Amino acid sequence: MTMSLLHPADLEPASVATGVYASRRRYARVDAAVLLGLMLCLLMLIPAKLIVPNMTDLGRPALIIAVLMSAWWVLVRCNPRLSMVGPQPIRWVVLLYLLWAILSYAVGFLRGLTTMEANSADRAMLYVAAFAGVLLVVADGLPNWDRLRLVFRVFVWCAGFMALVGLLQFVFWTDVTVYLMVPGLEPKGFVPGFEVRGAGVRVASTTLHYIEFSAVMAMALPFAIHFARFAPERKSRQRFVILALVIAAAIPTTVSRTGFLAAGLMLLVMVPVWDGRMRYNMAVTAAGLLAALMFLKPGLINTVVGLFTGASEDPSVTSRTERYDMVQSYFVQRPWLGRGIGTWVSPQYQYLDNQWFAQALTGGLVGVAVLVALHLVSIALAVIALRRASRPEDRHFCAALISTQIIAIAVGFTFDSLSFTTFATLLPFMMGATGAVWRFTHPRRAVRTSTARWYAA
Questions:
Q1: Which residues are listed as membrane-spanning (predicted)?
Q2: Which residues span the domain enclosing 252?
Q3: Which of 25, 195, 360, 380 is buried most, with the most CB atoms less than 10 Å from its CB?
Q4: Rg of the chain over all Cα atoms, to the nearest angstrom
C-alpha cells in the first residue's frame, strides 16, 4: 500500500480542481479576507474627513473595524481550538511594539501632560490597537495565497478609484469628494483644498493630504502591475493594466517630491525581478505617460523638475531643515524614552513633517528602534519568502511587498506619515502581508497552511 506524501492540512481548493473546496478550514462566509476587504473599501473609498459623529479622526468606520480586529485576534488566540500551529516572527515584533507603547504611555503621564497632550496620548493608544489588529489579522488570519490575492485585488481596485477621483480633481479643479458624503457620517478636522504649485494644482483625492495621496498611490502601483502581469484571465489583466495606468498617472497630480521619490524607490526594487520584456514594456509605458502629461499640462514637467533642482530654496524644504535645532533641543532632554507616545501635539508645538523626528521625540531611541525593527523584520520576511518561492508570480508579489517597506521608510522623512490615518492603516496591512507570505512559503506544511490546533490534534 502506497502512503500519500500529501498531508490533509496541505489541501486547498486550487490543489484539487476549480470550484472544489477541500481546505482543512471550516467554511465561513465572513473570514479575515472579507473583513479586510471591507476595511479597505471603507478606508479608501470614503473621504478621510468623514467620521462617526462625536468622535475623533479615529472614528473613521475603517479604523473602528481595525480596532475590533485586535480584539478578534486576541479572542482567537485565547481559544486553544482556534489558535494557529507554528511560529510567526512578526508576532514578536508586534509584542515589542505594544510593550514600548505601554511604557511610553506611562512615561508621558509620569512627566505630566496638558489636557491636549493627554487626549492625544489616549488617541495614540487606540491607534496602536488598530495598527496591531490589522497587522496580526493579515499575518495569521489569511489561510492561503488565493485569499491574500483577493484582498490585494480589492486594494488595487480601491486605489484605482482614489486615483480616478484625484485625476478628476486635477483636470476640472472640482472637489469630487463632496459627492461622496455617506449618511450618518460627519466631516471633521482639516479638509484639503486645492493648492497651486507652479503649473499644476495639488489634489488629495479621498485622503487628508497631497503627500499622503502620493505615498498611497506609490504603494499601490506595484500590486497593480503585479495583477496586470499575473492575473489568470486576459480580460482581468487588461483591466489591471488600465488600473495601473490610472494609478501611475495620479502620482504627478499631487505635484509632490514624495510621490516621485516613492515611485522611484518602487522601480529600484521591482526592476531586478522583471525580465527583459517586462522592462521594455514598462519603459515604453512610462514614455507614453510622460508624453501624455506633457501634452495635457506642458508646464507641469518644468514644475516637477523645479521641485528637485530648486529644493534648497523651496520653503517647504527649508522650513523642515530649520526645525533641526528645535528637535535636537527637545530630544536631548529625554533621549531614551521620549516625552510619551502621542504627546507631540502639532497645534501646541510645531509641525515636524518628519515621522522619524516625531518618533524620536515621543518615543526616544527605544521608539525609533522599535519602528525600525518593524520595517526591517517585514523586509526580512518578504526577502525570505522571495527566496523560497518557486513561482515567478509569488516572487514578484514578495518584491512588491519589499518595495512598500522601502517606501514607508523613505516617506517617513518627508512627512509625519503615521499621523495620516489612510497611510497609517495601509502600513500595518503591508507588514502583515509579509508575515503571511513568509508562512505560505515555509517548508513545514503545518506552518504554511496555518493549521488550527483542533485539526492538528
A1: 32-52, 58-78, 90-112, 124-142, 154-173, 208-228, 240-273, 356-385, 397-415, 421-440
A2: 10-456
A3: 360
A4: 22
The vertex-344 CA angle with 339 and 347, nearest 5°, equals 150
Distance in angstroms (rounded) separating the CA atoms of residues 224 and 152: 9
Predicted local distance difference test score (pLDDT) of residue 348: 65
CA-to-CA dists, residue 301 to 6, 172, 244, 290, 326, angstroms: 57, 19, 21, 9, 35
Total tally of structural domains belonging to the chain: 1
The mean pLDDT value for 192-219 works out to: 85
SS3 readout for 258-269 = HHHHHHHHHHHH
Whether residue 305 is predicted with pLDDT greater than 90 in this model: the reply is no
Q: What is the CA 449 to chain-centroid distance, rounded?
A: 25
Cα separation, 84 vs 73, in Å, equals 11
pLDDT, one tens digit per residue, over 106-159 is: 999 999 888 899 999 999 999 999 999 999 999 998 888 999 999 999 999 999
- The pLDDT assigned to 8 comes to 44
Q: Does residue 203 fall inside a structural domain?
A: yes
Question: Is 5 part of any domain?
Answer: no
User: pTM score, two decimals?
Assistant: 0.91
Residue 433 in contact with residue 401, Cβ under 8 Å? yes
pLDDT band at residue 316 using 50, 70 and 90 as cut-offs:
confident
- Angstrom distance (rounded) from CA 287 to CA 151: 31
Residue 226, C-alpha cell as written in the block: 503585479
Contact 108, 117 (CB under 8 A): yes
Dihedral sign from CA coordinates of 328, 330, 335, 341: negative
Residue 62 resides in a domain: yes
Query: 1 lies in a domain?
Result: no
Query: What local confidence, expressed as pLDDT, does residue 404 receive?
Result: 98
- pLDDT value for 215: 96
Q: What is the grid cell recorded at 446?
A: 503545518
